[in-house]
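In this supplementary section we document a worked example of the pipeline. Step one takes a protein sequence of length 262 as its only input; no multiple sequence alignment statistics are reported here. Step two produces a three-dimensional model, which step three serialises into structure tokens for compact storage. The input and output of this example are shown verbatim.
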Amino acid sequence: MGRWYICKSCSEKFEHPQFDVICRSCDTIFQIENADLREISKYRLNEDRKKEVRQNVASLERITKLLTDLNFEIQTPGWAIGEKSGMRHQFSLLARKEIAGRQNLIALDMVVAENEVQASPLILYIYKTSEVTVDLPVFVAIPKFSATAHKIAQGHNILLIEGSTEETDNIARMKLEIENRLSGRPPTQPEGTGTKTDTAQKAQQSGTQAARWSKEEEEEEKKAQIQLFSTTSSIHPEPKKTSGFMKYLKKNIKKDKEENEQ
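The serialised model returned by step three reads:
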């Protein structure tokens, strides 16, 4: 009964074979009884939590190293108190550094999405930075921003970074932006803006678009005024004009009255 092993050299039968274990690092051979046995579990990704996992796995290591090399004090995550509301706002990273007797602050938020980062987290970030005095607002979107988010970011002076924070181009761009803003130099021209001619053409297009928007706003205002007038008119209707029959009736009543008086 049971299981037996047979030696292929001498045909000896035995119940328990001897196992030799070889270390892959130093090639040491030892018995399995002398080994430290540990169970290695196997894991499978929960597809329902995939977005959350990607958010937590995304690293700010290179950005943290860049800011540390520039002598910033880092907090990940960082907390700041809103100057107006008194609320406690959380950022993915806060970096502080005193320059010329003044505390300079970099506030960074990072959002990871499946396809593209929508406008809502960016709107929340804009609100938080309006509550806190920030010298360099940075927003990182992985893998990229949506078109709507890009439009919203315009005019808010935010350094937008798309893609991995491990990319050398993103780190170099952020370093240049930090040096420019904290030294009082104007922000660098966004990537892909092109030549001066292209810039002028875009400015002209923006002017045309602004004029078109102004016209649309004027038309909307007229519509609103018409709607307001209609509403007011329904509450306080204008007196109805006297019809021909009513004029004839009033005239005859007046005539009969005069004849009676005579």
